[in-house]
Inverse folding.
């Protein structure tokens, strides 16, 4: 009875209402952890040997049914949804300013298989997660909660912790301003980090929440355009080569050059502002 040796977990090992058949040669063990539907006091080895042919016969029909269920699930699983969304976002290629969903589609397509994504994309995060395959435990670094601004220095930490892997940080312009000095560290250490700044010249996440939670459109302190922030100039002042991209036709080549450079790069993409 391996359940006796299990480390405590608040999630029960068996779902409620599951019928249990217990085979044991010890009376005291019957129903010890869970109530049982049928209890067999018998030699476990001999009983299982007798049961296996019957279980195999029953399993044939179950396998057929399971196969049909899997075929049906394949029409709606993550891969199927991703294919549909990639086609949908691909149709936004002509939008100007750049649609963040299209940008996330192109970013994911440009990623090497060993890339580490540091995510603080906020309003664009949903599109990123819909498209990004999770290949290994270290391939995605995100912020579960708390204040914004971790991604620029977080990308430095990820690169130091995972040498040899290209790091791509996807960051909103408002978040980037909390820790912009991390660009100097990336340049100083010559780290292979590509910073992708989604510049909608506002704290779009706050504006969207104002509308959805309060029904209000008085966006005090949420604009970043008087004066506008020049992320290209900021990056170059700290030693990071940078480009500003507003034409969606230039996205792929810019991403390819930056990610394969093996050096710190910043790409500022001028994206749709969303809520006005």
């Amino acid at each position: 009875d391996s359940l006796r040796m299990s480390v405590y977990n608040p999630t029960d090992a068996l779902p409620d209402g599951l019928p249990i058949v217990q085979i044991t040669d010890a009376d005291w063990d019957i129903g010890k952890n869970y109530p049982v539907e049928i209890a067999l006091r018998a030699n476990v080895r001999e009983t299982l040997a007798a049961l296996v042919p019957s279980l195999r016969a029953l399993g044939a029909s179950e396998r057929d049914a399971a196969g049909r269920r899997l075929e049906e699930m394949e029409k709606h699983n993550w891969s199927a949804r991703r294919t549909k969304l990639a086609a949908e976002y691909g149709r936004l290629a002509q939008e100007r300013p750049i649609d963040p969903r299209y940008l996330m589609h192109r970013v994911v397509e440009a990623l090497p298989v060993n890339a580490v994504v540091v995510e603080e994309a906020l309003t664009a995060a949903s599109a990123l997660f819909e498209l990004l395959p999770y290949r290994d435990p270290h391939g995605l670094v995100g912020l579960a909660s708390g204040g914004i601004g971790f991604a620029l220095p977080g990308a430095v930490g990820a690169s130091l912790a995972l040498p040899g892997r290209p790091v791509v940080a996807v960051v909103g312009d408002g978040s980037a301003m909390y820790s912009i000095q991390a660009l100097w560290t990336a340049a100083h250490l010559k780290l292979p980090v590509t910073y992708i700044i989604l510049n909608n010249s506002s704290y779009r996440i706050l504006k969207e929440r104002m509308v959805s939670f309060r029904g209000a459109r008085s966006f005090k302190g949420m604009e970043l355009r008087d004066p506008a922030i020049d992320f290209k100039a900021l990056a170059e002042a700290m030693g990071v080569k940078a480009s500003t991209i507003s034409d969606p036709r230039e996205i792929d080549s810019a991403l390819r050059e930056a990610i394969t450079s093996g050096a710190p790069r910043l790409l500022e993409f001028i994206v749709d502002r969303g809520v006005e």
In short: Residues 152 and 180 are 7 Å apart (CA to CA). The longest strand covers residues 193-199. Confidence is low (pLDDT under 50) at residues 1-6. DSSP finds ten helices and eight strands in the chain.
